Amino acid sequence: MACFLLVSASRLQPLQVPSGNELNNREWATLVWLGVVVVLVLWRKKTRQPALNLVRTAMTSLLAVLVIGLWVWTAGIVFLGAWAHFWTGDLLKHTAIWAIGPALALIWGLAKASTDPRFFRRVVLGTVRISVLVEFYVNLQVFGFIQELLLLPVVSSLAVLDHFAGTDQKYRPAKRLFDVILAGIGLAVVAYVTITLIANWHQQNPLHDVRELALPVWLTIGAVPYIFGVSLSFNYQGAFRRLAQSSKDATAVRRAKLALLLELNVRSHLVGAFYDPWITRLTEARNFTEARSVVRQSLRRESAPAG
Question: pLDDT > 90: what percent of the chain?
């Protein structure tokens, strides 16, 4: 038996990450600085316990369930993308980066998705805005590790100061200065990337670059149904809870729920905005026809121009 296990173990191949997923200097520098921040937070007694409590709460809350659900959903999208030849193994790293970056931002934006009818259109269009294309372009070539390690905190600090200066009119001159410095750094980086790409054009893989550029677009589009479904579910749960609290008549509540479902169906933001006095009027409706009429009246009032 022992011999069998030894022979079997000798035949096992180590798990290998597909080629093309190696971390570049910018990503290594980012990990180093994140590690420094984590160590500093855990080192100080004043920040250690709050940080641990925050992590513990996040891992045991509904947020963790939603994140895991989105990751499982994303795995399904990636499987379909691989079947359609949109996804290949060399995009594994970029898929993971999307899953812990933009994907978590989508979960964080659930509250806005429940009230803003244009939320999903903005999310999809946001994946193809100019800043995203510029960010993709400057990541095609990176500096050496030491340069990236020094550049990252400098740019991050300038960006934070620039944002802070924009919150108060008296800091407007400082904001203009920070804008000029950031623009100068950005132009220098773009120039470096352009020159390097021209010098090494024969080493580029245009097909991989196109797939990498398209990846966050179709992953985000694929995640929209999940986010929309969660938003719709939460809004209906909230509306049904308000209906149940409004009346003790179980028949009236069931009638109100059905009327709401039939009239508002998948318009999530309208479901989320259904409050009193319409909740009370809906549960007080004497029959199903009147209940549907109440919901239609709320829709007309919602679509009526203000003033």
Answer: 24
